[in-house]
Amino acid sequence: MFKYDLVVIGSGVGGSSAAYQCREEGMTVAVIDKKPFGGTCALRGCDPKKVLAGVAALMDQNRRMKGLGITEGSRIDWEELMAFKRTFTDKVPQSRVDAFENAGIDTYHGKATFLSKNEVLVNGRKLTFDRLLIATGAKPAPLYFTGEEHLSTSEDFLELPHLPKKLVFVGGGFISFECAHIAAQAGSEVHILQGNDQALEHFDQELVKFLVKRSEELGIRVHFNAAPFLIEKKEDHYEVYADQDGENIIFTCDQVFHGAGRIPDIEDLDLEKGRVEFTRDGIAVNEYLQSISNHRVYAAGDVSATKGYPLTPVAAKESMVAAENIYLGDGRKVKYGLMPSVVFTEPKLAIIGLTEESAVKKGYDVSVHRMETKNWYTYRRTNEPYAMVKTVVNKKTGKLLGVHILGGNADDMINYFALIMNFDLPYDEVREMIFAYPTSASDLSYLLK
């Protein structure tokens, strides 16, 4: 039997931040992961995806500038791109293990299951703990239709040795749109099947419609009210059957991908044996990220049922707060603030705060400002066909409730608004600031109405 002050299940940012912090405080720490060490973001998510999305964005800009100083002729070499991507991911697992061990943290590569409220089993070894942090992240949600076992995942997409000629994505969320744009820029035929009439449901739907329009101009077919109910594997292809407004339609493709949402990855943990309560949203925790049913257990990241978004920076923040509560005693709460989110398509789509609809539902009297910015210098110089900023303002206070951006620099712009809104910076002072010009930031003074 091995006894630790802290056992962490999960080696991504949600687990590793706490592991290092607690070890620095002199605690004995072990980290367990059933997958290669490093977590979703570094190995199977945002980091490798951004490498691919960056190349796709270069291709999009190259094509937009045809006849404006650029001669068309470049193409994406998928095999070369994947080799480049692997320069970011291949060394991560061993480097993470080495870093843990150099810090005096024990590592276990295997599936962890609870034996009791203070014991877990991994690779036949019983580990006893004083505190345990669950940071196992999320996994694709079950879709409950015949043939769903034929669905590939976003992880599979990011490891494709060769890009299929024809792809179908089930679901109209982040994963589908981001991967679809990458594949389309690389020359594939792409279809997205969305079960209702709204894609990217948490984003401003006016801007989503422009993104859908641009996606279709790039050759991506977005099918609304198309609910898959069957996938059949044939000798050399797949057939996806969907119900679209009462009519059965069939899509033939080389590979089908799951892009219809993710759920907390808790199924293998035997939480009942650990007396750890959970809901469909994840581990049930209090405001200190502590299990409501087992005071020894904490949870952080996508696996925890908190108000934090399923985003890497949120997981890191929750992990650090959980660590402080573990070694100092409960008392610290996560200050989430307003969390920005970005869809890395081309153009990019970003949000912080409330949409117009959600603000009205919350009882705010709002004014909405729409600014089509494609003819502004920032966007016209790279011939962007769609660019827009939409702000939702509280009429009573004049303060921003939400900001929504569509454009090639939306990822940078939304972070400026995150600073302004979270720190309640006076708009007059921001407008008076002298920013480097011409840059995205120099547009801020015109956007703060």
TrEMBL record:
NAD(+) binds at G171, G172, G173, F174, I175, S176, F177, E178, G261. Binds 1 FAD per subunit. Residues 4-318 form the FAD/NAD(P)-binding domain. Pfam families: Pyr_redox_2, Pyr_redox_dim. GO terms for molecular function: nucleotide binding; oxidoreductase activity. Disulfide bonds join C41-C46. FAD binds at K50, D302. It comes from the Bacteria. The keyword Flavoprotein applies. Its cofactor is FAD. Belongs to the class-I pyridine nucleotide-disulfide oxidoreductase family. PANTHER family: GLUTATHIONE REDUCTASE (NADPH) (PTHR43014:SF5), MERCURIC REDUCTASE (PTHR43014). This is NAD(P)/FAD-dependent oxidoreductase.
